[in-house]
């Protein structure tokens, strides 16, 4: 008996499209990211990574996931942890730097950020932003409570962010802002999920000063670059998502974004916005100091989204 509930292929996008029994990679896809999308992993070129003077070597770009780590490093330095000094090397993901052999040796998944800790021999490789935050928190004994209940709450929210953000960036952000054409179903699906997540966060922040409680932690550092940016116009979608509804998130965004270490971390490995307000590579505190002084002289208190 024929399945009369099956959708009519004429209603598909593009009209008439029916998924094949076996998917094959026969054309580029992914909109403006098509040149770096492929269904296999591994290096595409031989390219060693540079190593600077500090023990901590970061290979990244100023996307939300990259900013998590530079915020953490700047917070550690501000808290007096001198051994948290670092070199930050720019990985231009649009140009495929993440597929160089040296980068793949640190992160076989070819995603930023990646880090190597040269304070031990051989160096410890680190990839996935959440993993790097936990490693640094434990290494320096900072921004992660030791008491079991508080520690668990930080991990709850850190893992919430790691699992939720792909729906925001790869889901909503992609289909609303980056896809080569608009698909109503996809935009509606991911807009609903993005607003649900903002509501989850707003209700949590109605009860607490920071995400995991009354203490600023790596959970805030992980969540802020994604959801803070959403409230400040990421994907040109602030009006579309009615982000002004989330008063508690807005209060938290203002609190976190006012921290000097956050402002410093947000401009490292940046590739957009006014060129004079970026620190493409960071090898010394003075690299950021110069840009921050210029921004303050111009009356620019915070980096642009």
Low-confidence stretches: none
Largest sheet: 4 strands, mixed
| Architecture (CATH level 2) name of the largest domain | Up-down Bundle
Any idea how many domains?
Answer: 2
- Tally of strands: 4
Helical percent range?
40-55%
Structure description:
The protein is mainly alpha-helical. The chain folds into two domains: 56-140, 3-Layer(aba) Sandwich (Glutaredoxin); 148-297, Glutathione S-transferase Yfyf (Class Pi), Chain A, domain 2. It is built from nine helices and four strands. The longest helix has 31 residues, at 148-178. The radius of gyration is 21 Å and the shape is globular.
Would you kindly provide a brief summary of this structure?
The protein is mainly alpha-helical.
List keywords for this structure.
globular; mainly alpha; Glutathione S-transferase Yfyf (Class Pi), Chain A, domain 2; 2 domains; single chain; 4 strands; 43% helix; four-stranded mixed sheet; 305 residues; Glutaredoxin
Task: Summarize the SSE layout with pairings.
Elements lengths: L55 E5 L3 H15 L7 E5 L10 H6 L7 E4 L6 E4 L1 H12 L7 H31 L5 H22 L12 H14 L15 H11 L2 H7 L18 H13 L8
Parallel strand pairs: 1-2
Antiparallel strand pairs: 1-3, 3-4
Helix pairs in contact: 1-3, 1-6, 1-8, 4-5, 4-6, 5-7, 6-7
